[in-house]
Amino acid sequence: MKKLWRSDRKLIKNRRMPDQLVRLVIVFSVLIASVVFVRKFVLPPDLKETGTHRTTAINRELGRPINYAGSSVCADCHEDEYETKISGYHQNLSCEVCHGPAYKHTEEPEDYLPPAPRERKFCPQCHTYNLSRPTGYPQINPIAHNPLKPCISCHDPHDPVPPEVPHECVACHAQIAKTKAVSPHALLDCVTCHTTPEQHKVNPRVVSPSKPTKRAFCGKCHGLQSKKKGPPKIDLVTHGEKYLCWQCHYPHMPEL
Ligand code: HEC
Ligand code: HEC
Ligand code: HEC
Ligand code: HEC
Ligand code: HEC
Ligand code: HEC
Ligand code: HEC
Ligand code: HEC
To answer: How far is 180 from 242, CA to CA, in rounded Å?
Structure first.
């Protein structure tokens, strides 16, 4: 036994490990030692878990307050809005996109009321004309598109069908019709202001429609005496002096 040991030592002495191997062994030993040290004394216990998720992380996420109720719960109590929305253009919008996080409201409906975005600046967030949006996505220029009124006065937010614009004259007067469609006069029919004989559509250069000729014509809706709700009122006697209204206001786009 002793003999064997002695011969072994001799063997090692004669066949010395190459230097580079020795260095490698040292480096690896230090590495392994520090890994063992860090795992044992430095790492917090939950980092040593071998599962895919750390328990503390799961608990932390579970502990967060819930803000959003999700896209289906609202239907339980607001069947009307849900039914309206489900078949309309906004069918892919979640209720909380517009009404904000409403989890508290679903728990205690009377105590927490979610706001409704009634003001005009809300809708253009998604509908302002923007080159990078896909073709066909409904976009408008919020400065020119029926200014001054809230969007919801013409579009139901839960089913935003655009109101029917009168189209009968568009075939030949496309430019005027397009201009008018986004003006405060959008919902006025052309024939409200132009009495148009049927023959005009057949022989437009021979048979002409009428055109308003007097200030009083516009005064029917805009005069102080007018009973029409909606159109803003001016004093016919003083406003614009003696000039015709359309010397200052383009009737198909009457902006200020
Ligand atoms: C448990 C029933 C319930 C659920 C679920 C519920 N609501 Fe309501 N909500 C009500 C009640 C009740 C009212 C009416 C309170 C009132 O008129 O005073 C109301 C009113 C509203 C209003 C009107 C606030 C106002 O200013 O008039 C909005 C907007 C609304 N809810 C949105 C939502 C949305 C969005 C969801 C889904 C995240 C939702 N609700 C889920 C019961 C519910
Ligand atoms: C595009 C934005 C939008 C979406 C999406 C939307 N709403 Fe509304 N909601 C509004 C606006 C704006 C009003 C205010 C309407 C008004 O005052 O005429 C409103 C009003 C309401 C009201 C109050 C009704 C009233 O007569 O006062 C309820 C309730 C409501 N929404 C529930 C819902 C529910 C439920 C959903 C989902 C199914 C939903 N909304 C989706 C914008 C939206
Ligand atoms: C989160 C984005 C978003 C918001 C906010 C939003 N919309 Fe929309 N809107 C859409 C999408 C998406 C469509 C459907 C586009 C489609 O069908 O290709 C749409 C469609 C429409 C259409 C239909 C146009 C057509 O003829 O094709 C109108 C009108 C409209 N929205 C008006 C409104 C109004 C008014 C509001 C504010 C109460 C509003 N939108 C808020 C995303 C939005
Ligand atoms: C005075 C009524 C009125 C108001 C206010 C109004 N709109 Fe419209 N909107 C219309 C009419 C009418 C059309 C259809 C125009 C057409 O067919 O040429 C329309 C069309 C649209 C379309 C469809 C455009 C397309 O290319 O298909 C969108 C989107 C729209 N409106 C969004 C809005 C938004 C957002 C607001 C508020 C900033 C708003 N509207 C305010 C009357 C109105
Ligand atoms: C078949 C094509 C066509 C159709 C449809 C048509 N128009 Fe015209 N319209 C014309 C042409 C062309 C003129 C230009 C005549 C000229 O310059 O002498 C004109 C001229 C006019 C004028 C100006 C007349 C003048 O004295 O200056 C008015 C107003 C008018 N059209 C209104 C309408 C209305 C409103 C409708 C729908 C009810 C309509 N048109 C449908 C082709 C058409
Ligand atoms: C609010 C009333 C009103 C409405 C609505 C209206 N017009 Fe006019 N239109 C006028 C007046 C006023 C003139 C005369 C302008 C002038 O003499 O300078 C006019 C002039 C015209 C002319 C002569 C050419 C021009 O541009 O001056 C045509 C064509 C015309 N209108 C077509 C139409 C068509 C098409 C529609 C519907 C899309 C329409 N109008 C809607 C008031 C209106
Ligand atoms: C049938 C009724 C009617 C007639 C006729 C009419 N308008 Fe209007 N006018 C309206 C309505 C409705 C509005 C939109 C009001 C709103 O935005 O709430 C409007 C808006 C206007 C505005 C914009 C006001 C603002 O606040 O920006 C002007 C300017 C205007 N009209 C001028 C005229 C002129 C000029 C004529 C004559 C050529 C005329 N209107 C004829 C109904 C009428
Ligand atoms: C000399 C030019 C001129 C003439 C002519 C004129 N206006 Fe105006 N109008 C203006 C100016 C400028 C404004 C904006 C400043 C203001 O509110 O007084 C305006 C504003 C308006 C408004 C908006 C008022 C409001 O409160 O929002 C209406 C509606 C209107 N005009 C209708 C008419 C009608 C109808 C006629 C014909 C009877 C007419 N205008 C003639 C220059 C004129």
So the answer is: 26
Q: Kindly report the protein residue whose alpha carbon is nearest to atom 20 of ligand 7.
A: 184
The rounded Å distance from CA 235 to ligand 8 centre is: 9
pLDDT digits (tens, 9 = 90+) for 134-169: 988 999 999 888 777 889 988 999 999 887 766 778
> 184 in ligand 8 pocket by Cβ < 6 Å?
no
Among all bound ligands, the one having the nearest atom to the CA of 255 is 7
Closest ligand 5 atom, CA of 190? 35
Give pLDDT tens digits for 86-121: 999 999 999 999 999 999 999 999 999 999 999 999
Atom 27 of ligand 7, residue of closest alpha carbon? 255
The model's pTM is: 0.70
